[in-house]
Design a protein that fits this description.
271 residues; alpha/beta; Rossmann fold; 7-stranded parallel β-sheet; 8 helices
Amino acid sequence: MAPSAPAPGRTALVTGASSGIGAAVAAALVERGYRVFGTSRNPETVSARVPGVEYLALDLTDYDSVAACAEAAGEVDVLVNNAGESQNGPVEELPMDAVERVFRLNVFGAVRLTQLLLPGMRARGYGRVVMVGSMLASFPLAYRSSYVASKAAMKGFSDAVRREVSPFGVGVTTVEPGSINTGISERRTQYVGERSAFREEYQTMVDSLNANEAKGISAERVARTVVGAIEAKRPHPLYAVGSNAPLVFALRRLLPRAAMLRIVARKHGLR
């Protein structure tokens, strides 16, 4: 995939740019010559600001905040929907308000922001929308059902919208990272009772998940994939990076789905 040079004057909006993948993507785009807006719930509290990035306030659970962010950014050529929440828990113990929150953050807020920015891209005859998903959307894992479902919804939205806007020069794609070493294990929301019937197996999964992430790829590597998708002349529907993506996606095509689910479970200590 050979990226093209970014055209002068391109503007990008990267959500969740205060840390992790979002900060790495924002930094990579600044280096490539884009004007970059990065979002955070509270821009004033961003401790490690990326040089050259202009920070905007965005609360994805508040549609008024989404609209205000879109208006403040103005004409955006590239949208990277990265912000979101990572969530764990046995399905029996997930509070519905937590499930609704993860969908509002990971899906509905991103959809609304995309809705607001697409008309300008279409009118100008150029645009790129990248959904930062997760390989768990392709390889579901027990005790991560709400998160898996939200990332699968992002990919489904991206795949369907892709055909609607491609005739107008707008490319829509999903980037699915595998295990990433960004410290996300410390920020993940978890819902499991001390006396839960699932407690022991759940903890086995979490310990394996955290260990895999500690050995995972860097945010900068994911950022390179995102930039490649943005600057490709014909972006693919899906890019996967990390966790031996080429091999596991090949196995996914060859093996029965039940077999792949067992492999994913075993990789995380579940028998």
